[in-house]
Every structure is written in structure tokens, then in C-alpha cells.
Amino acid sequence: MEVFPVIDMEKLNGEERATTMDMIKDACENWGFFELMNHGISVELMDTVERLTKEHYKKCMEERFKEMVASKGLEAVQSEIDDLDWESTFHLRHLPVSNMSEIPDLEEDYRKAMKEFAAKLEKLAEQLLDLLCENLGIEKGYLKKAFYGSKGPTFGTKVSNYPPCPRPELIKGLRAHTDAGGLILLFQDDKVSGLQLLKDGKWVDVPPLKHSIVINIGDQLEVITNGKYKSVMHRVIAQPDGNRMSVASFYNPGGDAVIYPSPALVEKEEEKKQVYPKFVFEDYMKLYAGLKFQAKEPRFEAMKAVESTVNLGPIVTV
Question: Which positions are tagged coiled coil (predicted)?
């Protein structure tokens, strides 16, 4: 049985660099997911974020979630629910402009920890994008520039809790989907599992490792790499016991960024030609909003239908 890819980033600095880069390449091409250890974010900061996230849920969100469950009669469901997720969430925006000060109920120490954590994750995302450029054989900085738009990338965090669920066989924590954006960096609960990805037609567990960051590829990287790296369907299984924490940060293109396959990659694979559309990222997001829990291929086809109207400027790399 294949083993879920776990990458030790410290090995990028020594004689095992080539082997580690190969592991990242294989994970991007064959899994769409991998898990990072020794990624440079301190365990103290991660422990603080986890503690404050769980305290915030207990204090500010748990009661609201219970009221929602009661109002919809979800404790007594008898048939599968396919239009609702068993999760309690809130969203933070970091770039281009932070909304952290506008989120109600966040205590000052939580705001401060999340701000510091987001800054570290942003740096990690940019480091990873350059590692992907190296593996793809394209110019360093290309992917960051491809995401840039006129105001830089968009970067935000979805903070989720998946409380104990009485009927996990009938209600998903989060229904199966691919992520619309670029690179996703997830800090997940190391005690309560639930995240799964679809590989070769089977659902595979993403192991809950302490102090790891789980990385997955979004739809935009699939387009830019012309399908060399693919976004993968994943879901969260609700659990009968334990409250699962998930802090997922999305390093995405700017709203006005024009997304299209890298010409260098298209040239390398002459026989394949360009199979993905050109589009403005915010147009894709508008389409995705209504089709998140459906297959990605029709979304790409829909964007192909409008791509002739996209003004394609060159990406300048430094």
C-alpha cells in the first residue's frame, strides 16, 4: 500500500535535497497533497493557535452551532444530507487588506497569534511555490508572479471546528470538493482525524501528525501547470467523538490576475498542447461559488467558453 507523502523540509538543506525534491514532485503529480514537518513555524506558535482556536469555539461558537443543529432537526436525521456540512466556521482575510480587526468576538491575544501565524504561512507558501518552480523547470518566481495581479495575491484563512456528530454516516463534516485557489496550507487537529482525499478511486486518510502543515494543490495550479499538477477531491468525515480543529489558509491569485498555462510548460509538452483555459481569477471564483461540490472539469470548460474576452498581459519575472 502506498504511504501518504510526508516531507521533512530540513532535508532540503543537506545532501538529501535531491531526494526530498523528488518526493515533493511525486506528491504534486500523483497525490495533489503532502504533509510538511520541520517547516520553520515554531511549535510554540502552533500550540498557541490551537489552544486559542479551541477556546474561541467553546466560548463564542459552540452554542450557536448547537442552536443551528436544533433548528434544522439534525440530531434525528434518518436519510443522507447532501446540502449541508457539519462544521462551524469563520473566515479571516490577510491580503491584500486584513479584516482581522472587524471580526467580532476575537480576543486580542487570538488576533495577535493569528496575525503572526498568517505571516509565517505566507512566507512558507512563497517558499513552496519556488520549490514547485524548480521541480517544474520554470523560472524561479514565476508562480508567485502568476498569482500577483495588480495588488498582489489574496490570502485568507478558514477556521473550522467539526463537533461530534450523532450520524456521521449521514452528514459529512465537509462534502467532497477540489479547492478553487492556488496553494492551501492546513494546520489540522492531531488527535481527531477526518480529512480524506480521493486517490485512484479510493478515499485515503490524511494522517493527523502533530505540528505538521498539510499542503494541497488548488485548481489554479492545475491550470498554470497545464495539468502536470492536479487539484484533488477531498472531504472531511464527521466523527461521533471529539471536536476536530482545522485552520486552512489559502494562498490564491489576486482577483484580477489572469490565469493560464505556463507557456514554458506548454512548449515542453508539444504533443499535449494547451488544454486549459485563460481566465480572470475572480470570474472563476464567481462560477465556483455555485459549483463547489461538483466536478472541476465543467468549470474549466465554462471558462474556455469565455476566454476569448480575456486580455492576456505578459507575466514579468524578476
Answer: 107-134
